[in-house]
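ERR on first pass: missing label on line 2. Operator R.T. fixed the label and resubmitted. Corrected input:
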Amino acid sequence: MLVEYLGLIGLLGVGVGTAIFVYALARRLRTQLAQSRDEHDSPIEPTSETLDLPVGSSTSRYFFIAIVGLILQAGSFYFYLWGASLREAGLMGLMVMLGFGMCLMMGVFYSWARGAVSYATESDDVALGKKD
Amino acid sequence: MLLGIGFKVVLITSVLLGVLVPTRARLLAGRSALPEIEDGPFSSHAVVGLIRPLAQLLDLIVIDARAALPRRRETHIAVAVVFAAPLSAFAVIPFGSRYLLGGSEIDLVVANLDWGILWLSGAAMLSIFGSIALVRDPEKRVPHGVVKISFAVGAGLALAALAMVFGTLCPTAIAVAQDQNFSIGGLFGPALVGFQQLQLPAWGALFQPISLLLYTVCALGMLQTSGADASDEPGSRFTGAQYLLVRTAEHLDHLLVASVVVALFFGGGALPYVSGSSMIEGIGAYFGTGLATLLCMAIHTSVFFVKVVMVVALLGSLDRRIKGLTFATSLNLCWKVVVPLSLLNLFVTAYFLLAVETAQ
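pass 2 clean. output:
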């Protein structure tokens, strides 16, 4: 059974390995091209320039809903396990999970009541590139 | 055993990166998988045929960023995570069923894990965190993450309802269960004798249509904003290599959604009304069981990839509609419709399944 994990690790390794290979190849080719060219002819520009990023503005209004989302996402893992063993857990399991689900939904309803879902404004759409 | 796993890894990587990603790019975008760039040092040579795309690829990856992000190493890592996460999720997607060949069981899946569906959620979260790190403006990162996490919750709950129906978290077991038919003759009275023999394929889409709808909307919602902006082009913020990996990851994400839909809701590689065992039995009468099994594996694999391409094409218009949603609409859709409906679907399904079990 443990050998099954090798497939997962293998494909993960292929993904990371491909990225590293592409980076390494790009770096090597760039170095070789730079060496074989005069500096004036080179179309490759130096990378000293960096983006001027606005730092420090607050987006804390979204943290509330992000936290509720993460809790629900973590909670959904329990739903997976319960779903797979529904027949064994029986009616008692349903009652327990109903209680658990109601606790999670209280977070959702509370976020509605706080207006967390209604925070989004037109400026957010612009910020996310949804509008010009 | 190790050789078999290695073969599957190479096969799935080659098909994905060599066939499906370029196919999706051409199918939906109507253009090449590579961006239009001027001839560089490699493609300016008189190269023809198959070598030219390779030269263009090399030209792309040697482009350096004029305005790199301040933390360049972190960007490299985030890009690698965004690329590797969907690729690794394909490890648990069964592109066929389970076969008996030479006395041993063969599953057409890279990693036959009992908790495969959990890994799908885990890989999605990994990809989300990677894409959040790629967002250029810190002001945008949290809203970007909120949208993605919100849709991930809905997708997770939709898959939990499907796992409940099949009673397993193993995608291969779900694919095997779908390679059968179920009778709905009991729904019809004696007056409708013709319908009493009616059978339907035991596909997840028929057992859980609401889950299919919710999963599709949520999975596409998760992909509606990527870490890369539409205005990003090789050499602006990303290096050519990073750009290549990010754009490939976007295609991989969409292909993953289509593959999950096919594998868990549309029977994987199975043909409707033709189960794998009956196919092997039919072909085996002429060619022997061994060759029939190999043929069946080839047919199932081909059917799976054809279904994936069809689903990619079908989801194109829905994807465009979801991409057109505003941020406010996305949040409202997710928190006021999708999440409550997913939970309701989960509990109604559980109650129904337990009621049927008790009645039996």
